[in-house]
Amino acid sequence: MTKCWYYDVDELKSPEKFSESMIRLPWEDRRDKVTRYRFGKDKRLCLGAGLVASHALREFGVYDLTLDYSKEGKPFLASATDIYFNLSHSGKYAVCAVSGRPVGVDVEEIRSYEEDVARLCFLRKERDWAGREEDLDKAFYRLWTRKESYMKCLGQGFSLDPLSFSVVPGAETCKGYRFWETAIGGHQVCVCALEGEEVLFCEYPAQPIPI
């Protein structure tokens, strides 16, 4: 079972909640990263991603949250290399997917269709599919989150050419992988995992699991 937790970080606009959450965050390097951001929105997203990740991992049964990093800079659990997790944040949501198999997740705030980006990142058949959809903006972000979650699931990110594979809904060519999607408060979320997985979307609770 793969679980994807999502968190509305606007809760962290409260100075008291923000301070309490900074203390509770288990990773010092992420606390340092939060403080380096200039704008409150970026601070909240960075902190929220850490909170939802620590909760998701503990809920998955991991309590030693010591991290190590691959040569590409991707974090992994030093004590549980058979547990995979992936983070993303955008707009006002932070998400974390956790699984016993490779997993990738992306969340994007749904804004306007970006023609220049589409031409750089989407195949002609993907752009044609989007053009036939009733909501072009949502179609753009469905394709984008599918692309990014797949690249993250493979562990390659944008080192993989986004034009080298297709993610047209209903006609996937990413053999061996599947996509699970949901829309949350004006945001598009997509999890990419291996075939045979089950994916459950969960809202991050108001009261996290105690440390």
Class derived from helix and strand content: alpha+beta
How are strands sequenced across the largest beta sheet?
4-5-1-9
Largest sheet: number of strands, sense, barrel closure: 4 strands, mixed
* Total count of helical runs of at least 4 residues: 6
Fraction of helical residues: 25-40%
In N-to-C order, the SSE pattern is: EHHHEEEEEHHHEEE
User: What integer is the average pLDDT?
Assistant: 93
Q: What is the β-strand count?
A: 9
Poorly predicted regions: 207-211
Cα shape:
globular
End-to-end Cα distance: 23 Å
Radius of gyration: 17 Å
In percent terms, what proportion of residues is strand?
Answer: 25-35%
Short characterization:
With 211 residues, this protein is an alpha+beta fold.
Summarize the helices and strands and which ones pair or pack.
Blueprint: E1 2-8, H1 15-24, H2 28-36, H3 40-59, E2 67-69, E3 75-77, E4 84-90, E5 93-99, E6 103-109, H4 115-121, H5 124-132, H6 136-153, E7 177-184, E8 187-194, E9 199-203
Parallel strand pairs: 1-9
Antiparallel strand pairs: 1-5, 2-3, 4-5, 6-8, 7-8
